[in-house]
Amino acid sequence: MSIHKEVKRITTHILQEMKNRGEKISMLTAYDYSMASIVDEAGIDVILVGDSASNVMAGHETTLPITLDQMIYHASSVVRAAKRALVIVDLPFGSYQGNSKEALNSAIRIMKESGAHGIKIEGGIEIAESVTRILTAGIPVMGHLGLTPQSIYKFGTYTVRAKQEAEAQKLREDALKLQELGCFSIVLEKIPAALAKEVSESLSIPTIGIGAGKHCDGQVLVIHDMLGINKGFSPRFLRKYADLHTVMNNAIENFVKDVKDKTFPNDKEEY
Length: 271
Ligand code: KIV
Description:
Layout: H1 3-6, H2 12-21, E1 25-29, H3 33-41, E2 46-49, H4 53-56, H5 68-81, E3 86-90, H6 100-114, E4 118-122, H7 128-136, E5 141-146, H8 152-155, H9 165-181, E6 185-189, H10 193-202, E7 207-210, E8 218-221, H11 223-226, H12 244-261
Parallel strand pairs: 1-2, 1-8, 2-3, 3-4, 4-5, 5-6, 6-7, 7-8
Helix pairs in contact: 3-5, 5-6, 6-7
Bound molecules: 3-methyl-2-oxobutanoic acid.
3-methyl-2-oxobutanoic acid binds at residues 29, 48, 50-52, 90, 187, 189, 210, 220, 222.
């Protein structure tokens, strides 16, 4: 029997137990109440209120513009829906890079104002002081290494990271550091599968991969991508579990047609 089926509320300790037992962790993003209700009911382990909301909810090109207030708004909607999943919220760009006190204040605001269960933060050794300070306040922290989208203008492209040995070595050291500091898990984004395997096996805490191969301890996808809502986004790592773009488009076209044809509403659909 998987732990996943037995528990009423997923905690960071349960994720650790899953890794210890070899049970994979499932994580999806959600940003609003209705979507989070469906995701939670379907049995997901972790809901990530990702700063990808900046792209998929607000239509920005990058994750940089989304604000702390906007993240808190999305997170509080998701928390109201999540009866069983652990809810983790991204610290957005500009809310933690200044200094560790600012990072702690941002994390506290997320926890206090949204009711979430922990935060995710991008970066390695360079944000160690902030991670420590947040953890000292009793806030669970998930790390994020590899392709960290808040650094897109430093990277220049969204291609696979850590293919060169120097960057791979830095990632190994960052992962170990985040574990030593007390992070409960680390997201590994778009790195070679062999490196993700090595890191996942060397850490005692769970890794959650996106475009990082099958050896991570869990997998995460952006909900709009895996449901096929974003038509034009088809990177190699993405498996589309539905074609909601077509389903929704057909439904809306039919509605427009029925209104124009004067067949909606009919006699049974009025008072
Ligand atoms: O913001 C996000 O959705 C993320 C995932 C892609 C891991 O950070």
